[in-house]
Amino acid sequence: MTTNANILTQLKIEGLTHDGRGVARVDGKAIFIADSVPGDIVTAKITLQQAKFDEAKLLEIETPSTDRVEPFCPKYEECGGCQLQHLSITAQRFWKTENFLTRLTQAVNSDNCQIHEAITGNDRGYRRRARFGLAIGKKDKVAKLGFRQKESNELVDIEYCPVLTDGLNEAIEKHRPALLEKASRAYKELTVVEADNGIFGLKESPEPSQETPYYSLENLNLEFPQDGFIQVNSELNQKMVRQAIDWLELEEKHKVLDLFCGVGNFTLPIAQKAKQVIGIEGLAELVETANANALKNQLDNVSFQKANLFEDCTDATWFKKQKYHRLLLDPGRQGAFEISKVLHELKADVIVYVSCNAATLIRDIKELEKQGYRLTKANLIDMFPHTTHTEVMVQLKKFKQSKGQPKKRAPFKF
Question: I need a surface site. Which of 15, 146, 153, 339 has the fewest CB within 10 A?
Fold first, then answer.
């Protein structure tokens, strides 16, 4: 390696950050370089120096990594939707898993944790929901229907997106001419979803559909609000729910609490295996939809209630003086810190926690450790291939230590 006025040559990229930047090291100090991948030999220019790390701009790939691939989407260099198409899907999954497990096992007690293989599926044509922007460009004055550019508010016009389902792409092709005619300088967002009963959100008519979208899951039909949350990857959602049920170790006698339950994505399949299930959700519309889903699927052992899980819930009827055999949490990116502080009061032996943000998950596990829970299973769910986003799942169990046998902390092996 040589240096000249902050220009570094023959830098070997050794790792990948959670946000998709390559990592090189000079005299032990990390250098983060966007657009580089592990295995690359590169020339880069230092753009920011910090005490513990530097940031650099990629100038040249001297020798490409064997994991570097040609992006399959012609709009990849412009569009901000995907960040990792230049890295093979196998390498993507390796580094996502490596980053998650390293952060997890360094932060919490992982002595008794079983690491399971990542849940994976198709890496193209997987996305059944997307948010499109519709506007006339400020710079070129051209009407566009698409996604935001990288590091910009301008839109990239999208005629076809390889990670969207075939149904969504066909709908885009059909409706885009009429939509482009209605574009204005005012930015408009369209939530587009392919449900099991059709495409919703792309029609040029301002009248909302009279039909409610639904998707099938574990022999159930779950309705959901067109603009509401739904797991974007149907195939991986099926696998994720099945694993969650397996990790809950359910028995017919069990009473289960599902927190941040949405329209019942986990709750209703769990109800097919347990004696009683209660789902808690913060949005009234989702609670109403979830209760309707339970009724339509003829599940009378499940109910849903509204509660703000970011506030004190200990006086709520579903919490106070209650005991549950199993708990499931599936919060948004902000995690479940407040409710995690008091979950020990519910006396559950097993907790399954599903998260789209490893940082808040780890924070919450630390809180659960204080209450006597220990990490027992963990894995990655590659819900969003070719992006830096991940879904992860962990199982925790109430820790019971035998008297006179102090616990020894062994080094963890990947």
Answer: 153
> pLDDT band at 228, cuts 50/70/90?
confident
Helix axes 89-107, 358-370, angle to 10 degrees: 30
H helices of 25-147, where?
Answer: 89-107
φ, ψ of residue 49 in degrees (nearest 5): -115, 130
- Asked if 154 and 137 touch (Cβ cutoff 8 Å), the reply is yes
- Cβ count within 10 A of residue 219: 8
Check pLDDT > 80 for residue 411: no
Which residues contact residue 213 at a Cβ distance below 8 angstroms, ignoring those fewer than 6 apart? 193, 195, 196, 197, 198, 200, 223, 224, 226
Beta carbons of 21 and 31 less than 8 angstroms apart: no
Q: Is the pLDDT of residue 21 over 80?
A: yes
How far the first Cα of the chain sits from its last, in Å, is 31
Cα-based torsion angle of the residue sequence 102, 103, 109, 115 in order, rounded to the nearest 10 degrees = -50
Query: What digits encode the pLDDT tens for the residues 304-343?
Result: 999 999 999 999 999 999 999 999 999 999 999 999 999 9
The pLDDT, as a whole number, for residue 282 is 97
Secondary structure E strands in 40-187:
41-49, 53-63, 114-115, 129-136, 143-148, 155-157
d(CA 337, CA 331): 10
Look-up of token digits 């009279």: 210
Q: How far is the C-alpha of 315 from the C-alpha of 302, rounded, in Å?
A: 21
**pLDDT, tens digit, for every residue of 368-395?**
999 999 999 999 999 999 999 999 999 9
Residue partners of 15: CB distance under 8 A and separation at least 6? 22, 23, 38, 95
Q: Read off the pLDDT of residues 30-49 as tens digits, 9 standing for 90 and up.
A: 999 999 999 999 999 999 99
* Tokens standing for residue 106: 């360094």
Active site includes 356? yes
